[in-house]
Design a protein that fits this description.
This protein has 308 residues and is of the alpha/beta class. Helix content is 42%, strand content 23%. The strands form 4 sheets. It has a 6-stranded mixed beta sheet, sandwiched between helices. A 4-stranded mixed beta sheet has the order 8-12-7-11, with helices on one face. It has a two-stranded antiparallel ribbon with strand order 1-2. Helix 7 links the parallel strand 9 and strand 10. Helix 1 crosses helix 2, helix 1 crosses helix 4 and helix 5 crosses helix 9.
Length: 308
């Protein structure tokens, strides 16, 4: 029996709906149903019964519910007691500029709340540079977009990002509509990162598959300057939704690229577990939880979670 099964069961009983509980818990309805079935099999009794408006606990389920709630309260109290011990230390985390736009401040806030005595060092740089720093043990953790699995790193998939064409309304050649395909971007002036940037490599390969030669009018490796140039109408750019996090109030227009092969996978990469301090291990958990919350709350545009 696992604590997550208890949490699932309690939330289903509170909402009286398997579907609503699945949405709030961020799991699929079938996966949630399987967990409850395993719990019932272990207990050798039926805990829930279906009714016209959803589900309701059986008599055995109601008795189990009270004890499950008590167990969860004790587990939460144990977590608070552990956190009260004041884990301390220094942790270095690397984020690409687009990732930092949406994850940086929420991560800082979450760490301050959960581990106020852990000093967080955030580094914003290109993904390739972050990988080099990680290999040199200058970082404990980083969000990367590709990695060499031969290294002794711990790698966990975080999310998949859709890419967007972002442009000023003053740009005549800008795509019109909420969605666009790469084939429609022929002749659109583009401002992109240089070839050293991982995103540029992804786009080059994507355009090649579509047999479209992109019209690159400028290359800018700094996200802030790149977005300034786009805002000034010098061209459109192609970026993940996270790039728009700092420009929510702008009148920039964005169209999601719908080609199946166009996207970016985010990986949470760290040194091997035996090389990480307790503070770094705790930070890795907080990072994962923060990312999942941002995506579920709709605060990470174009992102969908990946299973570990």
């Amino acid at each position: 029996m696992e604590l997550r099964q208890l949490r699932y069961f309690v939330r289903i009983c509170e909402l009286r709906s398997m579907g609503r509980a699945a949405v709030e818990l961020g799991v699929g309805t079938s996966a949630l149903s399987q967990q409850i079935s395993r719990l019932e099999s272990e207990l050798s009794t039926r805990l829930l019964q279906r009714i016209s408006t959803g589900v309701t606990p059986t008599a055995a389920g109601m008795a189990f519910l009270h004890q499950a709630q008590l167990t969860l309260r004790h587990a939460d109290a144990a977590v608070l007691a552990a956190q009260h011990a004041r884990l301390s230390g220094h942790v270095s985390v690397g984020l690409a500029p687009t990732t930092a736009s949406v994850l940086g401040v929420p991560l800082l806030q979450a760490m301050r709340q959960s581990y106020p005595d852990v000093r967080l060092h955030l580094v914003e740089s290109l993904s390739g540079h972050l990988a080099t720093m990680l290999q040199a043990r200058q970082l404990d953790l980083a969000v990367l977009f590709q990695t060499n699995t031969l290294r002794r790193w711990s790698v966990a998939p975080l999310l998949e990002e859709k890419l967007f064409v972002i442009a000023s309304p003053a740009l005549p050649q800008r795509p019109v509509g909420a969605k666009v395909r790469l084939a429609q971007l022929a002749g659109v002036p583009l401002i992109l990162p240089s070839a050293d940037h991982g995103l540029r490599s992804t786009l080059t390969a994507a355009f090649a598959r579509t047999s479209v030669e992109p019209l690159v009018v400028a290359e800018i490796d700094g996200l802030a300057l790149l977005m300034d140039a786009v805002r000034a109408g010098h061209g459109a750019t192609i970026q993940p939704g996270a790039a728009m996090a700092r420009h929510a109030g702008d009148d920039l227009q964005h169209s999601q690229i719908t080609d199946a092969h166009v996207g970016r996978r985010n990986l949470l990469v760290s040194l091997s577990d035996d090389e990480l301090s307790p503070a770094a291990l705790a930070t890795r958990v907080v990072m994962t939880d923060t990312v999942r919350k941002l995506v579920r709350d709709g605060l990470w545009a174009g992102a969908s979670l990946l299973d570990h």
